[in-house]
Inverse folding.
């Protein structure tokens, strides 16, 4: 038997070993990545507008319209936003809250989300409403608006999401994106207002791993 015939099986086997070795290393790498805590999505507030904004000493009425950009910074992890609530607050008092349709962000994917919230005459004595705005809060907001034509609000979201890595790993998380101290100016007499700085603003995104 010639020397070339002795070495031929080794030469033929080497590419196969290389392929299997590469796949094994890739699986190990993906497995290690799946054990690392996923990065929180980047949430950016682009715009905030109010219409039909009206405050009296007993009621609050307004339509809120926000546009956000949300992107997934993860290289190997998809994110499914299962349940989303968006809210507007004055100091620590939630004024309005609304649901957002669930959606999925793929690897390095970005999406624009529009959040619309309406508050129609919420009254402290009307317990049928889910949200109750205290009279002292309404009085303070009305006073601020009279003084300089502006009121400071905060936007917060409550998000229940699932991260998925490949086909084998999932991780449930709770997130609370926040954009604080948004100064909104109002035009006199017509109930229209907008975010004075005009944005955009990156929101902080606290994340809790279940």
């Amino acid at each position: 038997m010639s020397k070339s015939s002795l070495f031929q099986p080794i030469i033929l086997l080497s590419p196969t070993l290389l392929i299997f070795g590469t796949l094994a290393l890739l699986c190990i790498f993906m497995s290690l990545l799946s054990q690392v805590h996923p990065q929180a999505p980047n949430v950016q507030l682009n715009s905030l507008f109010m219409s039909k904004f009206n405050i009296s000493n007993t009621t609050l009425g307004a339509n809120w319209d926000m546009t956000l950009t949300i992107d997934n910074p993860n290289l190997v992890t998809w994110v499914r936003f299962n349940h989303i609530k968006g809210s507007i607050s004055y100091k620590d008092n939630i004024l309005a809250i609304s649901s957002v349709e669930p959606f999925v962000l793929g690897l390095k994917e970005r999406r624009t989300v529009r959040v619309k919230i309406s508050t129609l005459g919420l009254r402290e004595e009307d317990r049928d409403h889910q949200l109750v705005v205290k009279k002292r809060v309404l009085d303070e907001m009305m006073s601020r608006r009279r003084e300089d034509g502006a009121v400071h609000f905060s936007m917060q979201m409550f998000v229940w999401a699932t991260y998925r890595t490949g086909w084998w790993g999932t991780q449930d998380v709770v997130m609370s994106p926040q954009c604080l101290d948004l100064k909104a100016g109002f035009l006199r007499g017509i109930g229209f207002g907008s975010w004075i700085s005009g944005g955009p603003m990156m929101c902080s995104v606290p994340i809790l791993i279940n």
About this structure: The first helix runs from residue 3 to 35. The chain has a mean pLDDT of 82. The chain has two domains: 1-35, 39-209. Residues 1-35 form one domain.
